[in-house]
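Review box. Two proteins, two foldings.
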Amino acid sequence: MERNGLETGGLSNETHAAFKVTTNAITEIAVYYKEKFGLDFILPGKFQTDNLESRFGLYRQISGGNDHICIRQLFETEKKIRIRSLLKLGTSSKTFGQVLITNNDLPDFGDVDEESVVLSFWPNIQVNVRI
């Protein structure tokens, strides 16, 4: 089947190559663990990078959906993520219980540390930094 000159119903060359490399790697891991540790099976789902891919997806999303972010955008986005974790607000409701309010639309603060940003917005707030 062809649509606009492109063949559909199959894998792209890049996807096929990635699939082949992944399959070969999992096979080699299984053989290694069988020989080295005597394991009869492995759980290939444990060899995944979902957390890493999720983090980079968040970087791209906060950077305006840009697939090719620069290192400066990465650092700025990481600051926004850390600030957002500090700015979690909550309230209690008889109907809904504890309600968490988050702000997903933080402005760019530039090259400042998180504590000074929080204090500039709320000068009377006390920030406890855990190390």
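Next protein.
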Amino acid sequence: MTDTTILQNNTHVIKPKKSVALSGVPAGNTALCTVGKSGNDLHYRGYDILDLAEHCEFEEVAHLLIHGKLPTRDELNAYKSKLKALRGLPANVRTVLEALPAASHPMDVMRTGVSALGCTLPEKEGHTVSGARDIADKLLASLSSILLLLVSLQPQRRTYSAGNRR
């Protein structure tokens, strides 16, 4: 056992030690977010995450992260329409998901759905920024459909509990 073990034999908790070895060392440069710029804060593309959570819709934040800016009202309406049009799952992806064992963990179903989607709709050669954004939009739209399919199959599936995860 190491000091990073969170739970040992379901009897007691061992808290991980806080590593200070890399405190203050940049892990990389990104335009997406900053962490701890002025304490324990988080910013997405310059916007405080608490402000985004309080004042923005999900699709507005998705647009900000994927497309680089908060949308105008017209852009938001167009983006919602685009995502709605991208929600459909190909038949073979549905078939793969429907064939999974009833006791499958929901995250395993989501991961498998994404993998099946990637095999069905492979990325095109020669990545472009626009193409990457289209992939992100399709994935974002498809995840809700994968989740909806999972929920619709629940009557036929065994109820999941944390205890039956392998």
